[in-house]
Design brief:
This protein is an alpha/beta fold. The chain folds into 2 domains: 136 residues, Periplasmic binding protein-like II (D-Maltodextrin-Binding Protein, domain 2); 101 residues, 3-Layer(aba) Sandwich (D-Maltodextrin-Binding Protein, domain 2). It is built from 10 helices and 10 strands. A 5-stranded mixed beta sheet has the order 2-1-3-10-4. It has a 5-stranded mixed beta sheet with strand order 7-6-8-5-9, sandwiched between helices. The longest helix has 14 residues. It is elongated, with a radius of gyration of 18 Å.
């Protein structure tokens, strides 16, 4: 039976681990290996010839880059999910309830993903810019390789606050969401998926991609906070599904 190597954004870890178990039970004998990390770093590994069959990115730019190089299997690229940006702080922390509060002198370290390789870091910078606080926050920023590292920095107290996805914040028991970035403050967040042209098992890879759009997978994604209706609806529809999460500060 075929082996499938899936490269996926770190923010998908919990949901995809559960979906992996469902898929394996439904496809006895199929091997399914998951590699998680920052989308930009995974893109670079694929460009260097990593043996990936399926790629799930937390932003369109990484998939765009691979597509421009002819590294995607034609007609396999699809938009899978949406998400939203959250500001998280240690659960006992007080005094930080908005992105603007990050400019206060008491906030010394802010964790974000490295914008050069982590889409959540790019979105974070867009949010800061939208509030006119990007330059003020620059000396406070500590950059990490993926959103789970950002979350861990806040959980451990290494950082006073961090910017992650809402879905990452939901899995943490030691941090709280201080604010959710309104939709207008950043580029729409889209998680595209595609099969790689150099896949060793393209049919099996296509089958797994299709499974990601199944009702079983949808239930898991929704369980972990990815908005309902994002799996099959066009961007305009799933963005409306985020409305409840994106109130103004």
């Amino acid at each position: 039976m075929p082996d499938i190597n899936v490269y996926a954004a770190a923010s998908l870890t919990n949901a995809l681990n559960e979906i992996r178990a469902l898929y394996i039970r439904s496809r006895p004998g199929v091997g399914l290996t998951m590699t998680y990390g920052g989308s930009g770093a995974l893109q670079q590994q694929i460009e260097r010839g990593a043996a990936a069959d399926v790629f799930l990115s937390a932003a369109s730019s990484q998939i765009d880059a691979l597509q421009s190089q002819g590294l995607l299997l034609p007609d396999t690229r699809r938009d899978l999910l949406g998400n939203q940006i959250a500001l998280v702080v240690p659960i006992g922390s007080t005094g930080i309830n908005s992105f603007r509060d990050l400019t206060a002198a008491r906030v010394r370290r802010i964790a974000i993903g490295n914008p050069a390789a982590v889409p959540a870091g790019e979105y974070a910078q867009e949010v800061f810019a939208s509030y006119g606080i990007k330059n003020q926050l620059r000396p406070k920023l500590t950059l990490y390789g993926d959103v789970r590292q950002v979350l861990a920095a806040v959980e451990s107290g290494e950082a006073d606050a961090g910017v992650v996805y809402v879905t990452d914040a939901r899995v943490s028991t030691t941090t709280r969401i201080a604010a959710v970035a309104p939709r207008r403050t950043h580029t729409p967040i889209i998680y595209p998926v595609a099969v790689l042209r150099n896949s060793r098992n393209p049919e099996a890879a296509r089958d797994f991609e299709n499974f990601l759009f199944s009702s079983q997978a949808r239930a898991v994604f929704e369980k972990y906070g990815f908005p309902a209706g994002t799996l099959t609806a066009p961007a305009s529809q799933w963005l409306r599904g985020l409305q409840a999460l994106s109130g103004a500060e």
